[in-house]
Amino acid sequence: MLAVACQKATEHPFSGRFLKITHDGTYLCRRCGLALWNTHQQFSSHCGWPSFDDRNPDAIEEIPDADGLRTEILCARCHSHLGHVFHGEGFTDKNHRDCVNSVMLDFVPSLSVQDTEEVIVAGGCFWGVEYWLKQIPGVLLTECGYTGGQLEYPSYEDVCQSNTGHFEAVRVVYDKNITDASTIYQLFFETHDPSQAFGQGPDIGPQYKSAVFYYDEHQKNQATMLIEKLSQKGFKIATQLKPVEVFWPAEEYHQQYYDKLQKKPYCHIYTKRF
Questions:
Q1: Whole-structure pTM over 0.90, yes or no?
Q2: Hey, which residues are catalytic here?
Q3: CB distance 56 to 36 below 8 Å
Q4: Tens-digit pLDDT profile for residues 99-149
Q5: Closest CA to 85 of 117, 60, 115
């Protein structure tokens, strides 16, 4: 993703996730969470990349491309490279095509969202953490993955060796007009044992430790305040606070695991603590 966002690379045609429109929703900037396009603006151009003939107001910036022939499109907020815009091709009545790299997008099933934020937390097996956090109103996307380690593109088998430094973690994207980081952190602390130092329940090992990976000082402060409240109640908190690192999505079979089984977590149980 960073190669595209910062170095203006281009993903291989027909390799992205968002070539087909499956249901109504919004495409967000993968880097900053701003709502850029929705599925009512998307069409099939058969060019190999997601295509849109319109865009959300003030979401996209255009600048001349370095090759002097094309026009580059950037996220108007974080200025990440998204792709290019073309006119006069006749694909739709608007004669406009935003040609976008899928890797620069998140998709959420909401047509009304305008802006989002995200948090990353780890608290044992990521299946259970994801199950609970996706229940919060305003949470639009959850994704299991690995973060905090040294190995690039880790697999589940790699992380299970307990020597890569990775945590099993969950990325949570939410509508900032509906919920906030503090609400998500609170449920996180109430659905795992933040006092267990080297795992969670029967899952023991460094990849199962409790941690909050914060994006900024505000997130760090929100987590710190909740830890202090728990400490005042007598809990000895083992949760680590760490600056965010590269998040590597886990394999598809790990995503929405308990939804697929239609079961509840076996080691993540809600316990009111606040």
A1: yes
A2: 99, 125
A3: yes
A4: 999 999 999 999 999 999 999 999 999 999 999 999 999 999 999 999 999
A5: 60
Contact call for residues 76 and 35 (beta carbons, < 8 A): no
For residue 182, give the nearest of 210, 231, 224, 147 by alpha carbon.
Answer: 224
Helices 181-190 & 126-133, crossing angle to 10 degrees?
A: 130
Cα-based angle 241, 246, 252 (whole degrees, multiple of 5): 110
Structure tokens of 236? 């000895």
How many Å separate Cα 16 from the centre of its chain? 16
Residue 12 and residue 54 in contact, taking contact as beta carbons nearer than 8 Å? no
Domain boundaries, the chain: 2-108, 116-261
- 2-108 CATH fold: 2.170.150
Separation CA 33–CA 104 (nearest Å):
10
The arrangement of secondary structure in 116-261, i.e. its CATH architecture, is 2-Layer Sandwich (3.30)
The full DSSP string for 172-190 is: EEEETTT--HHHHHHHHHH
The two tokens of residue 238 are: 């083992």
